[in-house]
Design a protein that fits this description.
Among the domains are: 118 residues, no CATH class; 79 residues, no CATH class. The chain contains 30 helices and 2 strands. The chain has a two-stranded antiparallel sheet with strand order 1-2. A hairpin with a 1-residue loop joins strand 1 and strand 2. Helix 21 packs across helix 24. The radius of gyration is 25 Å and the shape is globular. The N and C termini lie far apart (64 Å).
Length: 630
């Protein structure tokens, strides 16, 4: 039976990928065939549900059986019902029919079981709680009370309404598929190795070079994968052993990889799928979201860089051996082919203004001839193309089932008005203190995001939490980026830090220890969202000079906090000084007058003066020793 399932997957997964590409470029329109978007989504639902059962037996490690095959076949009509009948459904949305209810219930149950098989019980429990709340919330008191729904109305709303299940599936069907295709084309033809070579070339010979290489390479790969766990597994197998060999403790090596991989989703110009949902929700071009996210993302990686550098000095780690570093010629010859497709993607999205999904598909097509420049790719070109289509189909299924779950939750929230009620509750809890409201929102976002893929976590908190921040006067872009950042860093926040759980086995370290080390390394991700809510210049809102000044002050504050957390910068930093560094960093970050910020920066400089002198002396001596060795 397992062999049968493997054969089926090898046939259908490439077909899934091709259907996804055809949908994005809207091939039927060229033949004058007009279809509802929801008819496309019905086909997509069929693919992701059947694919989930083809990939996941009833229990991890178990053999497939006839029941799995029956369930995979049963998934087909749940989506095709929408594809065939949606023109009638659109004109008769309020008419409840027996078949709509039957297929809706079957679809919801298949999604829940598919979630259990692929993602475990946590998401099933979350989804089930929202479904039960939507059905029985009319019996609850206070802010949790909602209007009563019949089973038929609730199922119909979730199943066929464009603002529920189908709304979230639309992102998986377009943006999700397009960037999976783009990422798989680059990675399968050697793009991941090229990113690592370029990172080694620029960072390899510096102090903590192995960890800095991990930060750069994982951030680059993360922008095209959009999935922290798979990014950890992809680049971590190379970077984590490199860091351990240089002398980093296993927990630190795993944490660096987890932090860098998770940050790929918040790093412009190509961010994760959730960033495109922000653009859609706010009704702004994606370029605005990417521009707003730029400074916070730079601060995130700057903080990680600083701390791995300080840790390297504290541990007196050895440099990456010269024979393990690529030469500039080798890195260029074996990696230049990734530059044209990325350039095309950015030009099409930001200059030409094409939709992001279509831009990614065109860039993928541009990449295919360029990858032939590498000899290994010429020898295995068609085999790699087949693998790319297969893996694209497989990843479509993985992200699709999560988007389906998010769609059910969004439907339940919209139907019950829970978002409005929770927004009122959070606003009341924050009273007149916006900082307290932000803390409540951050904690809520972290809790709701724990154990969830970032795109599902953001979809949830964007509806439940962001409206309360906007209602309190925080700019809409800042509010959505705030909850987005916290839903992303829930991946590296103990106790449920899924990216750290993925990195820990590769590092041979305790997952909890990796999680707490990642928490320290990603300190900017916990501080900067508060800063840009109070200082919109950090998300590019304001005059260029004001933006530059705020960025420089924030950079200095983050640097000082990182020194305080590391407790070392060429010299050991005493505990009293570490506390003072944190305190005066807050003075810089807090939105006051520029004179107060400047005074805080002066005090920080005085506190760090011995370390600055020691660092200058160290670098001068190091340059002399390198010249002497040459």
């Amino acid at each position: 039976m397992n062999e049968l399932f493997e054969k089926i997957k090898k046939i259908v997964f490439p077909i899934y990928a091709i259907i996804g590409i055809v949908t994005i470029i809207d091939v039927p329109a060229y033949f004058k065939i007009s279809l509802y978007t929801e008819q496309y989504l019905g086909i997509y639902m069929t693919m992701i549900l059947s694919g989930t059962y083809l990939c996941n037996p009833w229990k991890k490690g178990a053999d497939f059986n006839i029941v799995d095959l029956i369930l995979a076949i049963l998934c087909i009509p749940t989506g095709l019902y929408l594809t065939i009948n949606y023109p009638w459904i659109a004109l008769n949305m309020g008419v409840m029919t027996v078949w709509r209810t039957i297929w809706g219930i079957i679809a919801i149950l298949l999604i829940l079981e598919g979630l259990r098989r692929s993602m475990g019980w946590s998401l099933v429990i979350v989804c089930t709680v929202f479904l039960l709340y939507a059905k029985f919330g009319s019996n609850l008191p206070g802010i949790l009370h909602c209007r009563e729904f019949t089973l038929e109305k609730l199922v119909s709303y979730i199943y066929v309404d464009p603002n529920s299940l189908l709304y979230m599936l639309s992102f998986g069907c377009t943006i999700g598929v397009a960037f999976i295709v783009f990422g798989q084309v680059l990675l399968n033809y050697g793009g991941g190795k090229a990113f690592i070579n370029f990172a080694l070339l620029f960072c390899g010979r510096s102090q903590g070079g192995s960890a800095k290489t991990a930060v750069v390479s994982s951030s680059l790969v993360g922008t095209i994968t959009g999935a922290p766990m798979s990014n950890v597994l992809l680049t971590g197998s190379v970077t984590i052993p490199m860091m351990k060999e240089a002398g980093y403790p296993p927990a630190t090596a795993g944490a660096v990889e987890a932090v860098a991989s998770s940050g790929g989703q918040i790093m412009p110009p190509v961010m994760g799928v959730a960033a495109f949902i922000i653009a859609e929700t706010l009704g702004v071009p994606y370029s605005e979201v990417a521009l707003a996210a730029l400074i916070p993302a730079l601060l995130y990686y700057f903080a990680t860089f600083v701390q791995v550098h300080m840790d390297a000095g504290k541990l007196q780690l050895k440099l990456v051996p010269k024979d393990q570093l690529p030469t500039p010629k080798y890195a260029w010859v074996n990696g230049w082919f990734i530059i044209p497709p990325i350039a095309v993607l950015l030009i099409l999205m930001f200059n030409v203004g094409l939709p992001a999904a279509l831009s990614a598909i065109i860039a993928s097509g541009v990449a295919l001839p360029f990858v032939l420049a590498k000899k290994e790719n010429r020898e295995t070109y068609f085999q790699q193309l087949k693998t790319t289509l297969y893996e694209t189909g497989e990843m479509m299924v993985g992200i699709g089932i999560v988007m389906a779950m998010a769609g059910i939750v969004v439907g339940c929230i919209n139907a019950t008005g829970l978002a409005f009620n929770l927004s009122l509750a959070l606003t009341s809890l924050g009273a007149n203190h916006v900082f307290l409201l932000l803390v409540c929102a951050a904690v809520t976002s972290l809790i709701l995001g724990m154990g969830m893929p970032s795109v599902a976590a953001y979809s949830l908190v964007a509806i439940l939490v962001a409206p309360s921040l906007i209602q309190f006067g925080i700019p809409a872009m800042a509010a959505h980026l705030f909850v987005f950042y916290f839903s992303v860093i829930s991946n590296i926040t103990p106790p449920v830090a899924v990216s750290c759980f993925a990195a820990a086995p590769l590092a041979g370290a305790n997952p909890t220890k990796v999680g707490f080390t990642a928490f320290r390394l990603a300190i900017a991700a916990y501080i900067v969202p508060f800063a840009f809510c109070f200082t919109p210049e950090l998300i590019m809102e304001g005059e260029p000079l004001d933006i530059l000044i705020c960025f420089v002050f924030c950079l200095y504050a983050i640097f000082s906090i990182c020194v305080a957390l590391s407790g070392f910068w060429q010299l050991t930093v005493p505990m009293v000084k570490r506390v003072l560094l944190c305190a005066f960093s807050v003075v810089i970050l807090w939105p006051t007058s520029i004179l107060i910020n400047l005074a805080g920066a002066v005090v920080l400089t005085v506190l760090l003066l011995p370390n600055i002198k020691a660092s200058i002396e160290y670098n001068m001596n190091r340059k002399k020793s390198v010249k002497a060795a040459e």
